[in-house]
Design goal:
The protein is α+β, with helices and mostly antiparallel strands and about 220 residues long. The protein has a single domain, classed as Gcn5-related N-acetyltransferase (GNAT) (Aminopeptidase), CATH 3.40.630. Helix content is about 25%, strand content about 20%. It is built from 6 helices and 8 strands. Strands 1-2-3-4-5-6-8-7 form an 8-stranded mixed beta sheet. Helix 1 packs across helix 2.
């Protein structure tokens, strides 16, 4: 019997979404690592970091269950983010060593992880997780969502163009990227390349800065 209130049942996927709990931390570590087998483990959550995040900001995370098995998750934290000085790495946002990076007074939601088991992909789960994150922004009156979006398609173009040129072509729908194009369809802006964001030699360690703006945000609340 899985504990925890069901926050939402996915309209397309049928998954039951719950906020993360401490006792799931090892399962969620395994879920993320199986979802990103080529990533440097230092760039992914481990059990202790997931426990810290769950203590700090459980309402900002969502775990999708198929019966009693966690098969997807979307995690995040509140941060202060300066759009005028946007370059950063994943470790700037998530320092580790007992610090999840969550700042309770932060005015942006930073999406730190979306992971979906391979056999559950293409069922609308990513869009459901984004919708849940957007709900958090509206509920907490946050400016929106910021994240470093992976750009897997850049591996095929990195010898032909810069990362910023690639992002521009995806933005203009000249090139389709399985991740960035999906985010574009979900209302995100593709802003610029983030150098040395993560360890991923296939795409020269780049990510794309993506932003979704909460139109319901009220400055003076």
């Amino acid at each position: 019997m899985i504990k925890g209130e069901i926050i939402r049942i996915g309209e397309r996927s049928g998954l039951e979404y719950r906020h993360p709990r401490l006792e799931w931390s090892k399962l969620l570590e395994d879920l993320e690592r199986s979802s990103f087998p080529t990533s440097d483990p230092e760039d992914l959550y481990d059990q202790a970091e997931l426990e810290t995040l769950t203590n700090d900001f459980p309402q900002g995370g969502f775990v999708g269950f198929d019966q009693e098995t966690p098969v997807a998750m979307g995690l995040g934290i509140q941060v202060f983010f300066n759009l005028d000085d946007p370059e950063h790495t994943v470790h700037d946002i998530m320092p580790g060593n007992g610090d999840s990076g969550h700042r309770p007074e932060g005015n942006w939601y930073y999406g730190t992880s979306i992971a979906v088991r391979n056999e559950y992909r293409r069922r609308g789960i990513g869009a459901e997780l984004y919708d849940l994150r957007k709900t958090v922004c509206k509920k907490l009156n946050l400016k929106g969502i910021v994240a470093g979006g992976v750009m897997p398609g850049y591996a095929d173009y990195k010898n032909e163009m810069t990362a910023d040129e690639y992002i521009m072509k995806v933005r203009n729908k000249v090139i389709y990227d399985s991740t960035l194009s999906f985010q574009l369809e979900n209302g995100f802006e593709l802003v610029q390349a983030l150098p040395n964001y993560i360890t991923n030699p296939e795409i020269d360690n780049y990510a794309a800065l993506i932003i979704w703006r909460n139109n319901d945000y009220e400055e003076d609340q």
